[in-house]
Amino acid sequence: MIIRALDFKDFNDCKNLLNMLEDGKFVFHYKHELEKKFEEMVSWFITVFLGITTRPIPPVTIENRRIDLLSLYMIVERDSGYSSVTEDNLWPIIAKDLGYEYKDGKYMGVVYAMYLDVLVYYYRFKDVQERAGDLERMKEKEVAPECSHGRSASAEVIKDVTAMDHYALYAGNDWEGAWNMQKKRRKFNFNQARKAVEEANESVLKFAAKRN
Q: What is the predicted pLDDT for the residue at 204?
């Protein structure tokens, strides 16, 4: 009932839903309802909040397969966010986890950037704003020195969001531009991964032979 009652009229409504998603067990039990509501939230955020009306919701692959935005969001969050996934070349693995092929990894990165990246950024910034406000209110209750030259609590907390690595591929409506930018990132090294697996298998076989 709580999920169905959610209605998106300002960003705090988005924040309420994203807060719910921090509970993995809750997501597991109500995945079907949450998928619909998450898609509704992304649609409101892009079309109303950002004023972008040219992006199809839900997004689809080149083969016209629907992309589950909630699952994409949850998996990327599990792997520490967009920046970490990109730096560690995990997009091919993300694609595989979602039921696609390794080759679809770059496309998943573009979809995340254009649909979810700025949403996550606003969510984190909102959280930082609230924490900064709480600290300022606590500071006001304390007796401050007459001449204080220290930085404000909000200035200290705001570093949390400004220090985040952020690629911001979401900007604008240029799918081709975002896709080309994503292509410039280094590729997942399948040869190196295959070699590591083969070496591990060989090691296991040698160990088994010694025990026999």
A: 52
Name the CA dihedral angle for 198, 203, 208, 211, rounded to a multiple of 10 degrees: 170
Question: Do residues 8 and 41 touch, judged by C-beta distance below 8 A?
Answer: yes
Angle at alpha carbon of residue 171, lines to 166 and 177, rounded to 5°: 105
How does pLDDT run across 36-69, given as a tens digit for each residue? Answer: 999 999 999 999 999 999 999 889 988 889 999 9
Task: Name the amino acid, one letter, at 168.
Answer: A
Rounded to whole angstroms, the Cα distance separating 73 from 115 reads 10
What stretch of H or E contains 40? helix 31-44
Using CA atoms, how far apart are residues 95 and 93, in angstroms rounded to an integer? 5
Question: pTM of this prediction?
Answer: 0.65
| CB 82, CB 120: distance < 8 Å | yes
Locate 144 and state its tokens.
């401050």
Supply angle C-alpha 95, 118, 80, rounded to 5.
Answer: 50
Residue from 10, 165, 78 nearest 70 by CA: 78
pLDDT digits (tens, 9 = 90+) for 66-101: 999 999 999 999 998 999 999 999 999 999 999 999
Closest CA to 72 of 101, 96, 49, 47: 96
Give 7's contacts (C-beta < 8 A, 6+ positions apart): 13
